[in-house]
């Protein structure tokens, strides 16, 4: 079974950076892409970024445009999300989802989700 596991979250100050990791175990021949979404308490889930395992397709959410970089290491079954110039509004639980097709920012299209990693950005 496909199981993403997120790591790399933490508590940082505004302006700092974090590198989040999504390691996907149990990948199948149908595995195609990974997306990152975040959710703060009382707020809707927001799209952050997505990348195909082959690296051909990438997409960034409006909220992190210019401040994030996503890339895949296919051989390591790992997707990295680099977040820079973090702001308090970036605070939330960051979830990694895996999909068998390109879903971009469409969260219901992602089929397997991790438990999330907490990112807290102090003002």
In words, what does this structure look like?
The protein has 123 residues and is mainly beta. 0% of the residues lie in helices and 50% in strands. The protein is built from no helices and 11 strands. Strands 2, 4, 5, 6, 9, 10 and 11 form a 7-stranded mixed beta sheet that branches. It has a 4-stranded antiparallel beta sheet with strand order 1-3-8-7, with no helix packed on it. The chain is globular. The N and C termini lie far apart (40 Å). The model has no long low-confidence stretch (mean pLDDT 97).
Biggest pleated sheet: 7 strands, mixed
Proportion of beta-strand residues: over 45%
Q: What global shape is seen?
A: globular
Distance between the termini: 40 Å
Oligomer: single chain
The total strand number stands at 11
Instruction: Tell me the series of helices and strands, N- to C-terminal.
Output: EEEEEEEEEEE
Question: In short, what is this structure?
Answer:
The protein is mainly beta and 123 residues long.
Name its key features.
123 residues, mainly beta, seven-stranded mixed beta sheet
Chain-wise SSE layout:
Layout: E1 3-7, E2 10-13, E3 18-25, E4 33-39, E5 46-52, E6 58-60, E7 68-73, E8 78-83, E9 92-99, E10 112-113, E11 117-122
